[in-house]
Amino acid sequence: MNKGECGAAVPHDRSNGGRCGLPADADSGLGLCPKHLHAAYDWVGRDVGFTDVLPTPCLACGSRLGVRYPSGWLCAICEWRLGDTPDGDLRPAGPARVRVDVVYYLGFGDRIKIGTSGNPRSRLSQLRFDELLAFERGDRSTEQKRHAQFASDRFPGSEWFHASRSLRRHVSALAAGVEDPWQSYARWMSEKVALLS
After folding, report:
1. For the chain, first and last CA: distance in Å?
2. What would the pLDDT profile of 144-185 be if each residue is shown by its tens digit?
3. What is the pTM of this model?
4. Pairing mode, if any, of strands 131-137 and 65-69?
């Protein structure tokens, strides 16, 4: 393989040592041609999904923003699965539905994922990680601020970050005095319920 050529494995083609050999996209920094960059993007999308406009508004919260997975669509706001019908007692009667958005920090090896959810138990059950490090109260705008704040540590095109000193310091500050992040979430939920009473 020559420098500047795509290094993707093509096992059925031995003409170039089993490698693609097409010109690599120099801007990507990954040594892959556009075709194999798209294949890698699709492969990663199986885990992280693709944010897009829902085909129809979410029946649970009315949002139009969704995340598309190979298995189907989830609402990006409340994570209701498109096509499921909410139970009568769960369907919101206006904006009073009890919901607390959080930014979550997950540890996996030497990486940290920064994501957001209005239904963290459901969301975290879909992810692979070693440890829930912390919750921070906030929605997508807070998540985007954190992504920008730690952009230099980010794995390109993902919500995963190198566990840099500054990111670990931020997570430690969020977790200070909290034995279990779920305790913070339970407190925020009860505060929200109290405000609605």
Report:
1. 67
2. 999 999 999 999 989 999 999 999 999 999 999 999 998 888
3. 0.54
4. unpaired
